[in-house]
Task: inverse folding
DNA sequence: CGCGTCCTTGAGCTTGGTCAAGGTCTGTGG
DNA sequence: CCACAGACCTTGACCAAGCTCAAGGACGCG
């Protein structure tokens, strides 16, 4: 069940069967981390590179006053820390939001994978998309009000989950508390709660028992000003295909 | 005067003289872009990779209501768009804040440079630091109030300018309007103005005719909760050396 | 001199934060 | 089967950070 990893990287490069086998074979072992536990701690210098196989994880930082900012959600197929080796120490933590299964890849293996140009290209692509996503989050925080910001996040997550085959046309599993959501949006839990109720009242989202459903995807896109270009999943037509045929 | 580029990359990898020559030789030509003009437009697929040689530039996006969010400042030595080729099209624009001199490198050259492991490592390093900086900006916007956020930005810029030899112990050239500053912080110009006056009143910053001076760097660090780890410029001791001996 | 760019100030309003409390749901142990 | 704890969700009243609208002043350049 490591397909999401391959599915994702196929958007970045045309990986042959051999490439795909090499990538899957790179995962030496898979461990399980309980919800609300750290996968990687800030300041550490992990030996292995980590990959989310199952579950929801997040990048986060704790600031001086004790509050937390989540800077990214990591879903199956996402790598946590390719090339920590280059930076030395983690400048942020990675935590399991729900229970997660985490794949481990040794730095040696990464290094040898990178020597294959197509694989190298795919991994660069993934890294650049992470960066683009981060930029979009910054825009989201700086220039959108909370309802739009929240809606935008849901649009993004639906599409990302669809792109790795983990969502149908309108819904995906979203095992996240409102507190985590608030920490991702940079607002208080209370405010996040009220904004969410607003979106619900407008029938823009239905979110029950960890299942997020977006009844009218187009309405949510319009509402939030969502433009998927930054995810670099291909042309608009390719995306339309993705949305209907998962 | 392309030294900042090399100075910066030396933090990421031990480049030999040959490597340095190869990097400098990669710059085929240098063009000048006037203040407030675009270096690269959103949606375009530039042929060349660009490098800021002189001046201040920024990454930005314009959102639906016409407001602008600046997502990064680019100073001499920073690359704008390594590997646009991989992503296809720019998902954001890059604009010259002040008049800029921009170096151009052909994609072919980048590709051949990347084949040299040490240079590849240095370029990965630069890209990862960009990403780390983006994460810190997100924390800055989400979890710090405007005065701290602004102060934090000034701490970052002073250190980055010092690291490429363009700042002395307490000051650097900051040819930026308050409007640009506001767009980087995600607030209105008016609010940025009032916050700036506050910092001035507390003698935390002196900013006159495009020259930014920070009379008491330690006080500004404390005030903003600045921790330079995310810039990955080396150990705390190495940074202390940097601050005294530029 | 006149225009554009930039900086500054004031008054009133809105978004989002703080403080405080209560409610729900689930799993655990008696 | 019930009591309890822990995590999570919800609501209300009040406050403050930051936005909007409106206006005016300073500076530099053709």
Result:
């Amino acid at each position: 069940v490591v397909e999401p990893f391959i599915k994702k990287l196929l958007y970045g490069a045309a990986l042959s069967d051999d490439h795909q086998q090499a990538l899957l074979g790179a995962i030496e072992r898979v461990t399980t981390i309980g919800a609300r536990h750290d996968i990687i701690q800030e300041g550490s210098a992990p030996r292995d590179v980590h990959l989310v196989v199952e579950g929801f994880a997040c990048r986060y930082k704790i600031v001086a006053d004790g509050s937390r900012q989540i800077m990214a959600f990591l879903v199956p197929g996402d790598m946590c820390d390719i090339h920590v080796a280059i930076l030395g120490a983690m400048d942020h933590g990675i935590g399991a939001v729900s229970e997660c299964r985490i794949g481990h890849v040794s730095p040696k293996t990464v290094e040898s994978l990178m020597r294959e140009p197509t694989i190298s290209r795919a991994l660069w692509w993934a890294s650049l998309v992470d960066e683009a996503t981060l930029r979009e989050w910054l825009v989201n925080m700086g220039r959108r009000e909370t309802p739009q910001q929240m809606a935008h996040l849901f649009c993004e997550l639906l599409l990302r989950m669809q792109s790795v085959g983990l969502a149908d046309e309108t819904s995906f599993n979203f095992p996240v508390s409102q507190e985590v959501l608030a920490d991702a949006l940079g607002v208080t839990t209370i405010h996040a709660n009220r904004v969410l109720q607003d979106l619900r009242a407008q029938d823009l989202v239905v979110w029950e028992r960890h299942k997020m459903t977006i009844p009218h995807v187009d309405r949510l896109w319009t509402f939030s000003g969502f433009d998927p270009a930054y995810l670099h999943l291909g042309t608009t037509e390719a995306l339309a295909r993705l949305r209907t045929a998962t």
Observations:
- Residues 145-146, 187-188, 190-191, 194-195 of chain B lie near DNA strand D (CB under 10 Å from a C1').
